[in-house]
Amino acid sequence: MIKEFRLPDLGEGLTESEILSWKVAVGDTVALNQVIAEVETAKAVVELPSPFAGTVAALHEQAGSVVEVGKPIVSFEVDDAGAPPSAVAGSSEVASTESPAESAAKREPNLVGYGAVVEKSGRPARRQRMFDGGAAEREPVREPIPAVEPARTVETIAPLVVPNGPAAEQERPRSTPPVRKLARDLGIDLALVTGTGPAGLITRSDVQDFAAGSQSQLAVPELAPAAASAVGVSAERETHTPIKGVRKFTAAAMVQSAFTAPHVTEFLTVDVTPTMELLTRLKASREFAGYKLTPLTIAAKAVLIALRRNPTLNSRWDEGAQEIVQFNYVNLGIAAATPRGLTVPNIKDADKMTLLELSTALSELTDTARSGKTSPADLTGGTISITNIGVFGIDAGTPILNPGEAAIVALGSVRKAPWVHNDELAVRQVMSLSLSFDHRLVDGEQGSKFLADLGAILSDPATVMTMI
Length: 468
Fold this sequence. Notes:
- By secondary structure, this protein is α+β, with helices and mostly antiparallel strands.
- The protein has ten helices and 22 strands.
- Helix 8 packs across helix 10.
């Protein structure tokens, strides 16, 4: 029997992923849950395990391809024991008189195969946590009624259904959000495009083919100047890099944030000589021996302390519910420059950590981010962020908010500069702090008090005694 594996939704509601590399080839024998590919979503690189045990019959996509969720990527040749009902994604099966094809049509793709059959009650079946390394909690399993299948039938999962009748003609053409955005950018009416995907789904290639004129004689004047300008330009003079993965996600998030939340940025330059002296003492102490301590470590702890006195900066504007969500915990985001682009993984419940624990978490976070192994879960759920532009020798900036957060702090470089200290001019170590906040959530007074508290802690760490 041939079974197709369709690209699953990796748990973040993403609509497409790029296949970075295949770990198997046609003809290879694979075991259940063996890693068969490495895929990159808009947020992270994820290893994709096989939902079946059998032989790889075909690879439908090449490495480097951007594939929409639900599209077949690999086919397996399996025997009846190759994919027992209880072994697929930890899902449960229910007894049914439906044929295998009808039963398969009700399944949804997930990370390691296909989900449980949807029961008539509409209640979702429980799923296994991905990569939990153990057995998942399951609903009681009952063996399905056996049915005879023809040899080498192709099992397809979750076919898309198009409604019939006049009402269907009035609905907008079926496509995914990225495809609709591409059509808008190219000035193309999707009603004129013929979909070649399942059940008439309009794909990215359909829109691109239409723009190129392969499906229509209609000219697209907007494309002519760009195409003409490319004629005669050698590859040595220009480098063209596709906008995808983390870069694409970051760009969309920054545009959304910049044009949705009214940003206000305030600046404060402080004498951080006492903080740098404290850092030197801590590095020499027995308790912190072997741990990586940096100005970011102390600044992150100072942000968490200042946040206790100014909790409005740890909130979110919920436009849909018309509510302000106040977080009673802090998931501290740290902007990290990686080979794949800018990511902002966050440290969960950072407000409950000691300085030693925070130091360890920061080291693990940055090492994981730079290796490209940050999980999607670590890239979501942040409540406030820090970007350390000082490591690049920059003094100050106007950082853009991470979507869904009320504030972000930019740490400038620590520089020696002339400073008035004890009424005398002296050479001190100074740092500029930049705070951007959402003015819908944070008033100028609240933002200023937070920044003043942060500066007070960094200029005199003993000030913490009066704040906690």
